[in-house]
Design goal:
Radius of gyration: 20 Å
Largest sheet: 8 strands, antiparallel
Distance between the termini: 46 Å
Shape: globular
Strand order of the largest sheet: 14-13-10-6-5-18-19-20
Number of domains: 2
Structural class: alpha+beta
Low-confidence stretches: none
Length: about 375
């Protein structure tokens, strides 16, 4: 018997997150491990009147490509993929991992070369999302690999995923709209502020948000969701931050990341594991050493860290900082081929905006 929560997830993705309308073109990036969800998404999208195209990624292909492609192949962007990112009205990205460490044995320089080549595609997508021309959503279909990564059984991980998305509630969309209202109250308080200062066991950092806009995340571009975020002023970050949670990017795990900032730029980095990979990614392009995002997790229904940033960056009691591409719609200027979210525990820290405490020990105080 099909899991009714999968049916509900597909309905929420199509009707709420993407809000598909008759005649719109939808590209679904997925793989066969998500077939249970893929077929229900197809049905719901067809019922909504959309034209659906599937990009079914072959498990293992990413490792094969990054190992054996020559330089010209690493830098090649296929015309169909370029067309989809430039012209399609909606893209749904479904992650369904079969091996979360697929790229762990690949030369970081080759990964960085491929990412740099795709920076134009990535920035096009960011720009189109920002101006409302592209409806995009990233979600996860729970697999054995995801469950193992999170140290859970598959059944427990499924419960975790669907609870985080509030899919066990009678009306998930109404619940996400309530979350949006809560976020908007926080955003209204923050949007005229100019400087954020954070101090605690893992952070002594400040940056400017003058002229920048905070946005809420309530199930539209990520599902599940739960954060408020902005793009800091590019040259303003000063100080130090330690990310106690493992930082995972492209299947590589980096432990105990510490970053030091001066005039907005990462001038020094360290890690107890994966330091060469960290430095390689930060050297992808000139924008990779600057902050593209500052976010505060608001989803307290996510009970724990699971090594999947789609969930982890939403954790109540944490912030995340992303190096790389900023969000132009929020006033961000930084451009890069990467956008790497790093998670910081704030349960023993304080955050002020223009000198006023608004967040302490993992909770909002306003």
């Amino acid at each position: 018997m099909a899991d009714p929560r999968v049916e509900r997830l597909a309905q929420v993705l199509v009707r709420y997150s993407l809000d598909l309308q008759p005649g719109e073109e939808l590209a679904v990036k997925t793989n066969p491990y998500a077939d249970e969800l893929n077929l229900v998404v197809l049905r719901e999208a067809l019922l909504a009147g959309a034209h659906v195209f599937f990009l079914n990624r072959q498990p293992g292909a990413s490792e094969m490509f990054h190992r054996y492609a020559n330089d010209a192949q690493l830098g090649y962007i296929s015309p169909p993929e370029k067309y989809i990112h430039e012209k399609y009205r909606a893209i749904l990205d479904i992650e369904a991992e079969y091996n979360t460490r697929e790229l762990s044995g690949v030369d970081p320089g080759r990964i960085a070369m491929a990412r740099k080549a795709r920076s134009g595609l990535f920035n096009t997508m960011i720009r189109r999302i920002g101006n409302g021309d592209l409806k995009w959503c990233l979600t996860v279909f729970p697999t054995q690999a995801n469950a193992q990564e999170a140290d859970m059984s598959l059944a427990d991980y499924q419960d975790f995923v669907y609870t985080a998305g509030m899919l066990d509630l009678p009306d998930p969309v109404a619940a996400w709209k309530e979350e949006d209202a809560r976020q908007q109250r926080l955003i209204a308080w923050l949007n005229d502020k100019e400087r954020i200062v954070m101090k605690g066991k893992n952070v002594d950092l400040q940056f400017s948000i003058k002229g920048r806009i905070f946005a809420g995340a309530s199930g539209k571009e990520n599902f599940p969701d739960g954060e408020i975020y902005t793009s800091p002023v590019d040259d303003s970050a000063q100080g130090w931050v330690r990310f106690e949670y493992p930082a995972i990017y492209l299947g590589r795990e980096v432990i105990d990341v510490e970053l030091w900032f001066a005039n907005g730029k990462v001038i020094k980095e360290s890690a107890s594991k994966g330091g060469d990979f960290l430095s390689g990614i930060l050297d992808t392009d000139p924008g990779a050493r600057y902050l593209g995002e500052f976010g505060i997790g608001t989803n307290y229904a996510i009970p724990r860290f699971t090594k999947n940033m789609l969930f982890d960056e939403k954790l109540g009691g944490t912030i995340h900082l992303a190096v790389g591409a900023a969000m132009p719609e929020l006033g961000g200027k930084n451009e890069s081929g990467i956008h790497w979210d790093l998670l910081c525990d704030m349960t023993d820290s304080e955050m002020t905006a223009d000198g006023e405490v608004f967040y302490k020990d993992g909770k909002f105080t306003i």
